[in-house]
Phosphoribulokinase (Exiguobacterium mexicanum), 210 residues
Amino acid sequence: MNELIDRIVAQVKREHRTIIGISGHGGAGKSTFADALRASLGDVNYINTDPYITDSTLRKSAMLDYKVDGQAHHYKMTACHPAAHHLLSLERDVRMVREGIGFYTIDVPYLERTWIDPTKQITIIEGMSVAFLASDWWDVSVYLYTDSDTEFARRSVRDVQQRGMDIAYLKASHDERRLQYELFMHPQREKFQTIVSTSNDVWTIENHRS
């Protein structure tokens, strides 16, 4: 991870407005990487895109039909599907960052709003929603992912221990979520300058281009 952070710090030109997009599925290490990058870059703007994800109550009512290896699946829409994101709202806010317009991030119960300061030249935008915008929205872009077992291990620590979720339900939902991820989200990685695998807690840069 430190190698990649050093590359990005060297790449960023502080005299120009720079937007860094970080994406990947849940448990891939996005927040860990974003926090480390913020620590290295200093005082920068930061936007977490979780508030741009459609409320889970609505997604539970939006059922998807899809096939994997010829087998039909019928399951609720997860955040791995592009339609689960308010992309027009995200595009508007990224455009305001680009044009140097200050604004408050979306205020939600689980994430307090923050002021996006137009005088700060660097803005980090991190979350799943980033994957579904075109590559030209970002000056620097990083996509992180893990294998299914590593993702489940990380999510089970968070969702079972911290949120009290039933492990059997989590496993069933994880399997379908992973299928939707492979179908709808993982192909988006090709739009990113850098692709990183964090499987088994080993950070491997699989692709890097400026």
In short: The CA atoms of residues 23 and 143 lie 5 Å apart. The chain has one domain: 2-208. The chain is about 35% helix and 20% strand.
